[in-house]
Amino acid sequence: MAKKSSCLLILLLLVLMTGCWDQIEIEERGFEIGVAIDLSKDVPELVESGSELAKDNGRFALTDQFVAPGGLGGQSQQQSVGGGQKPFFNITAQGNSMFEATRDMAVKTSRTPYAEQLKVVITSAKAANTPYNVLDLFLRDNEMRRNIKVLISKGRAVDVLNISPKNEKVPSIALDSITNNVDKNTAMVPDIRIGDIHENLLKT
Q1: Residue 4 domain-assigned (yes or no)
Q2: Which of these, 65, 75, 98, 202, is most buried using a 10 Å CB contact count?
């Protein structure tokens, strides 16, 4: 009886010990805070020069904005630019689809991209007007929250991720905060979220 109890205890311990086998430590995560979607031809300085992807007008450039925890001290973004670490960094990948661009992104950063803190997705008007569903990735990925805000930029979306906000250290956080002021300014258009787009697609 004692031998059976010992075996059961060992089996139970083995099950419990394997519970975190796929755990990713927080310092190994790359926290995405914002995303910009452009056509590759519109951001030639950010994509691989001479590559077939850059030559194809139908291909996309995906720029992820990551938080740099070491740069989130007491300095403002303007002070960080002059010296010290910036509170964020941008990485651009490319692909024939958002899924392909995401795979390309995985080999450009040493940290595992983590989208649960994503605030805004910005797509250029040109990218949004293509026949491809540029938001399909964000609608299907189970990491994506339904309250992620979707914005359309007249020009290049990546340029929006490089603005210098006065009251925030990270452009994506500044954009998210500005859109929260819609109730205080009637000139602002109510924000659209991933969940809203998903519900509208289900109705069509």
Answers
A1: no
A2: 65
